Records
---
Amino acid sequence: MQTAKDEQLEDNIGFACANGVDCRPILPSGACFKPNTTISHASYLMNSYYEQHGRTNNSCFFFFPNSAMLTSTDPSYNHCIYK
């Protein structure tokens, strides 16, 4: 269940894209574009940021306060592969 507001997720998308995350997968021709929702795009990019920054609590909760959560379930789907 989504608890973060779309505005916060949009800020997270902007932060991730401005800080080294490859945002091409969420573009219209990308593997993670569909579903074309803010939460889906933010989820992919926040995970990418988390992975690129050592999978630390700081890289999850400090940079994405009140909008991130850790999971042990792989959220990959179809051709959208979370790394």
---
Amino acid sequence: MSAGGGTPYIGSKISLISKAQIRYEGILSSVDTERSTVTLAKVKSFGTEDRHTERPVPSKDEIFEYIIFRGSDIKDITVSEPPKPHHGLPRDPAIVQVC
């Protein structure tokens, strides 16, 4: 996932698995290459599911406004859905965020 060129994955639905084997899903909000962090918004934790771990974690019903993940503790990250167009606006690299 490249941070250059405006980070084309911003706004995409992301599935992330931490080194603790916990899966999270949320909307990619930012990638900070200097701090090596990834921020997801509207995040749901699915727990460890069927992944092998010494400490199983159940899923949570709560939706977190955002979670900042340390890049070195991310085991896997995949794009589940591409970003959705915002309010009918065209894809414009000049737009950073739409509320």
